[in-house]
Amino acid sequence: MPATSLVAAALVLAACNKADDTPAPTAAPAVTQSDAGAISAPDFAERVKVLSSDEFGGRAPGSAGEEKTVAWLEEQFRSLGLKPGNGESYFQDVPMVETTADESTQLALKVAGKPRQLNFGSDMVIGTRSGKTRVEINNSDLVFVGYGVNAPELDWNDYAGVDVKGKTVVMFINDPGFHTDDAELFEGKRMTYYGRWTYKFEEAARQGAAAALIIHDRDGASYGWDVVKNSWSGPQFDLAAADDPEPRLPAQGWITADVARSLLADTGHNLDELYTAANKPGFKAIPLDASMSVELTSTVTTKSSKNVMGLLPGNARPDEAIVYMAHWDHLGDHREEGTDPAEDTIYNGAIDNATGVAGILGIAQAFVAQQPAPERSVLFLAVTLEESGLLGSKYYVAHPSIPLDKTVAVINIDAMSVAGPSRDMTVVGKGSSELEDILGHHAEAQGRTLTAEATPESGFYFRSDHFNFAKAGVPALYASGGDDLVDGGIAAGKAAAEDYGLNRYHQPTDEFDPDWNLEGVVQDLQALYGVGRDLASGDQWPNWYEGNAFRAAREAMMHKQSQ
Length: 563
What we know:
Layout: H1 3-13, H2 41-51, H3 64-80, E1 83-84, E2 91-101, E3 106-111, E4 114-119, E5 124-127, E6 134-144, E7 150-151, E8 156-157, E9 168-172, H4 197-206, E10 211-215, H5 218-221, H6 225-232, E11 236-239, E12 251-255, H7 257-266, H8 271-278, E13 286-312, E14 317-327, E15 332-333, E16 346-347, H9 350-369, E17 376-383, H10 391-398, E18 407-412, E19 424-427, H11 435-445, E20 449-452, H12 466-472, E21 476-481, H13 489-503, H14 519-536, H15 551-562
Parallel strand pairs: 6-9, 9-10, 10-12, 14-17, 14-18, 18-21, 19-20
Antiparallel strand pairs: 1-13, 2-11, 2-13, 3-4, 3-13, 5-12, 6-13, 7-8, 13-17, 15-16, 19-21
Helix pairs in contact: 2-9, 9-14, 11-14
């Protein structure tokens, strides 16, 4: 599918609803504690504790922490009795390029004829995906392009009437409609794929820009500047250009909201007024009285990372499979020369995503113990490079060990809720596929309901690995514990989520806590196991709901299979 079609598909995905005439799946008995007794809180806690320990060094791809992680995962799969998931191997090599920008880099601006410098970390972050050790940009004119969106199917083009070749585009994060809460624009508060930073840089590259800078704001990005700074400093990873057809910019990065406000004011513009203007149909890009120069030097190394996969072969239709997946990677150790030895610089990634890895291992344990054994195969896939743009799953989808037309469904686990049991279960992108009908059956048996994510503006559907499968047409489910906690209700659930986002997400403080309440984790895993159990023991081929943009890709895939 062409890139523009993928974007269009992503745009409407979360808004699509189930057609009234969609047949309901045959209800299987709900999972009970005895059915899934192998899913236990102590086992889960021990796995998270080990994987997120300092010994694993934050699990950065290409590091000693990766070597320990993938060896540990292979050992776990073997001990559970799973077979190699990639032919004779538990591993799939993912070629990657590691690029580390010199953090002494400054952006040299001329603003209304006056010089100004922006410093790495405090004012901006910048990097390159070009694979070059040196990128030099001289006197590149700045152009404000609103949200940097080109959506012909919505009659919206922020690049209309302006040539940005060789120029530096400046844009807002998220997409039109968000900052004005206008439900008539795009999807209002719900982020579409046009709002993701990955799309914005890709589109800027398609337009021929020399560089792109996104203006950060906490609400639009759904995280603070520290997350941007931490995520974009240190080694950055990419697939090799040969494995990734998406266009790439010579340089790309972010600037803080304060820097943007000051910069725009010095060119005669008001940031708040531009937010209003950029949300109106017919917005026209604005050339700014400013230019940028940068000499960006980077250390570039060609490496390889690994996806890790274990397979439980089906006893009747082993060529058909259900995939459970989680990403094993995180941000590594950011210790630099001269850092205070007492400072914690390891990004342990306990919740993000040692919990997901421990989750698929617990579900694997339940499947191995299941009687009768599943008729279809079940693949447990731990992918790399999620934090670098979903690259491990992107590579797998391009090189699957099980053909995508034989992949019944994908169930993704990323950052489980450890706040305790909830009365609901959150489905990210709710209203997408028939997998929700199956999950709803198991949630109902637990006395729970399915709800949509509380912050659709965060764009979580586009920020985890299931999205690559969805773009290819494979029905994908991404669900976790809800916000309506048994102890404390919605207020307590939202407070826990906000505390994690502010104080732990992509920070060294995301560490294992023995005081976590894991009762809800066990419930969530039992429900997700139930979805796969039903599919692995039957002959159902769930689809996207009628009207969903990914349904056509799935049906074309299955039509080809039947020929």
